[in-house]
Structure prediction request, 80 residues.
Amino acid sequence: MSVLSYVVGVIFMLVCAALVVLVLAQEGKNQGLGAIQGTVENTYWGKNKGRSREGVLKKVTIILSVLFVVIAIVLNMNIL
Prediction:
């Protein structure tokens, strides 16, 4: 194995650990009875969800999950 494959493997493990932490840090989708009526999205925080902490966590989780899949495919192809 080359040095590059070890470096990519370490990056892969760091991405995996970060992904686990981010998924556990996110709130659940259960918002109580307000979610059933749809009143949660009519608030200021519901409209600006992308700018809040939860929105940032969601965006970073999506980016890390795509990176996870790409690195997993590269490591599986044995091109390094």
Q: What stands out?
A: The helical segments are 3-25, 33-37, 44-47, 53-77. The chain has four helices and no strands.
